[in-house]
């Protein structure tokens, strides 16, 4: 006998035979989880009471510690029946082992395709199935008596310790954030809005609320656009008035000062007279030469 225990070297060598045996072992273990255990006593599950140390109860009475222990024991007892009364069918593309362990540990019933794996207890066409776990965008055949959900729903229900609405986990839906169960809900750091909604249902945003908010946002945008347009019109009007005032003060119809325009006309007339005088002088000189 060796301590610590040592495995034979042959078990540590991976080959086709060992992988086959391991796969068969895992399949048998999952199948074993799917069968109900028979009780030898007459005590029903619902009548079982949480185990509490009665000596501590007698010593401390109704102290806060004992009350807390009672609450924790009651919570554990409730969690054992979280999936009680629910029947799950796992599609062949979904990993079975973690889901079977969770569903069976929390009181649910589960099965799968008997032609692929051993240990199935009911078929897919069983109309008493409440949830079918699928990891594909769509299915050709669906039953209206069950919810078709993605695997994350099971894990989120266990993490949040309650049955969550299934509409966020339907086929093809974008899954909500996977919230960690290992954090304090009353922490001072950032808390995602999805986690806040779990603790305060009034924070859950419904479809009608989102539509109302979008309508309000559109109305606010229109009002801002109208205000901006009015401001632009006022600026343009002010610029026009200033330009008109400058036009009246300094410019004529062509944007030239009226006095300057009169002077330019007089200069043009004088130039024309000078040209006429020069032409007359040239004509007289030509006549004299002749």
Mean pLDDT equals: 75
Strand order of the largest sheet: 2-1-3-4
- The radius of gyration over CA amounts to 45 Å
Shape: elongated
For the record, the count of structural domains works out to 3
Annotated CATH topology of the largest domain: Rossmann fold
Q: What descriptors fit this protein?
A:
290 residues, mainly alpha, Rossmann fold, four-stranded parallel β-sheet, 4 strands, 49% helix, ribosome biogenesis, BRCT_dom_sf, PES, nucleus, CG4364 protein
What is the topology?
Elements: H1 16-33, H2 54-60, H3 64-79, E1 87-90, H4 97-105, E2 109-112, E3 131-133, E4 147-149, H5 152-160, H6 193-199, H7 207-250, H8 258-289
Describe the structure.
There is one protein chain. This protein is mostly helical. The chain folds into 3 domains: 9-33 and 80-177, BRCT domain (Rossmann fold, 3-Layer(aba) Sandwich); 205-250; 254-290. It is 49% helix and 5% strand. It is built from 8 helices and 4 strands. It has helices at residues 16-33, 54-60, 64-79, 97-105, 152-160, 193-199, 207-250, 258-289; strands spanning 87-90, 109-112, 131-133, 147-149. The protein has a 4-stranded parallel beta sheet with strand order 2-1-3-4, covered by helices on one side. The longest helix has 44 residues, at 207-250. The protein is elongated. It starts with 15 loop residues before the first helix and ends with a helix. GO terms for molecular function: RNA binding. Residues 193-290 are annotated as: Disordered. Residues 78-171 form the BRCT domain. Keywords: Nucleus, Phosphoprotein, Ribosome biogenesis, rRNA processing. This is CG4364 protein.
